[in-house]
C-alpha cells in the first residue's frame, strides 16, 4: 500500500503516487539556476593561488583610510572624558615570532596614524599585515568608543609579547628527530590623541 504525501505539487491539485514528491523536487531543482563557483573545480593549491592573487590585486587600503581620516568631519557632540584616553587593540595568537614583529613595531612607535599607514603599506615584512590590522582596529576603537579624531591619533605604546610555542619535529639524518618551534605572539597597540 503506497502512502500519499502532500507537497507543493499536490497543493496545485495534482494527485500522484508516493514517487511524485521526488519527481516534483527534481522539477523544482531543474527550474532553479545552478550556482556553482569556479573554486569547486579547483584543487587546494589552485584555490590558495587564487586567494593570494586576489589579495595582491586588492587596492592599498592605507591611502583610502588616510584620505578618509583627514577629510571626514568628526562628530561635534563626541564626548572625551580626559586627555589620558587611549584606544587599545590586542591581537592574540599571531602565528609569527615576536622578534620579527618587534622589528616592525619599533618603526611605528610614536608615529602619527597617517605615517604608520603609509609605512606599513610599503615595508617588505610579513609582520606588517597583522600590525596594520591592529592599527585599523585601534583607530576605529578610538573614533567609535572614545570619540577621538583619527587625524590627530598617534601610536603611544606598542609591544609584542611571546605567546605559546607549537612544537613540531622534522625527520633528519640517521632517523633522528629535529625540533621545530613555531612561535606565536600577542600584539598590543595603544593610540592617543596628540595635544595641539
Automatic annotation (TrEMBL):
<dbReference type="InterPro" id="IPR018260">
    <property type="entry name" value="Ribosomal_uL22_CS"/>
</dbReference>
<comment type="similarity">
    <text>Belongs to the universal ribosomal protein uL22 family.</text>
</comment>
<dbReference type="InterPro" id="IPR001063">
    <property type="entry name" value="Ribosomal_uL22"/>
</dbReference>
<dbReference type="Pfam" id="PF00237">
    <property type="entry name" value="Ribosomal_L22"/>
</dbReference>
<dbReference type="GO" id="GO:0022625">
    <property type="term" value="C:cytosolic large ribosomal subunit"/>
</dbReference>
<dbReference type="GO" id="GO:0006412">
    <property type="term" value="P:translation"/>
</dbReference>
<dbReference type="InterPro" id="IPR005727">
    <property type="entry name" value="Ribosomal_uL22_bac/chlpt-type"/>
</dbReference>
<keyword id="KW-0687">Ribonucleoprotein</keyword>
<protein>
    <recommendedName>
        <fullName>Large ribosomal subunit protein uL22c</fullName>
    </recommendedName>
</protein>
<keyword id="KW-0694">RNA-binding</keyword>
<dbReference type="InterPro" id="IPR047867">
    <property type="entry name" value="Ribosomal_uL22_bac/org-type"/>
</dbReference>
<keyword id="KW-0689">Ribosomal protein</keyword>
<dbReference type="GO" id="GO:0003735">
    <property type="term" value="F:structural constituent of ribosome"/>
</dbReference>
<dbReference type="GO" id="GO:0019843">
    <property type="term" value="F:rRNA binding"/>
</dbReference>
<keyword id="KW-0699">rRNA-binding</keyword>
<dbReference type="InterPro" id="IPR036394">
    <property type="entry name" value="Ribosomal_uL22_sf"/>
</dbReference>
